[in-house]
Amino acid sequence: MTADPDLDNGIPIRLLHDRVLVRLEGSEGERRSSAGIVIPATASMGRRLAWATAVGVGPNVRAIVSGDRVLYDPDDRSEVELHGREYVLLRERDVHAVAAQRVDTDSTGLYL
Length: 112
Prior knowledge:
Strand order of the largest sheet: 6-7-1-4-5-8
Shape: globular
Radius of gyration: 15 Å
């Protein structure tokens, strides 16, 4: 069920229905632009989607497997802490796109 070693090492969790547990990529602090300019965490930006890695999926999830990178809206999330590590719990329908090696090159990888 899981690809995250922290979840495999004794955290008793079973996701239900269409839930997806993801681990955030990077930090929500400062960012750098492509030109190398530091953007502070307090800078206001428009609505921006974020990438995360799926570490667990419920039994009714069809398009995502553990280890996939998923694109989601950080404003529509539920955070959970398991053994001192932060995760986000999403519904499959809240995931905007999936990036994985198994996604066909002819398809967009989008789950709509």
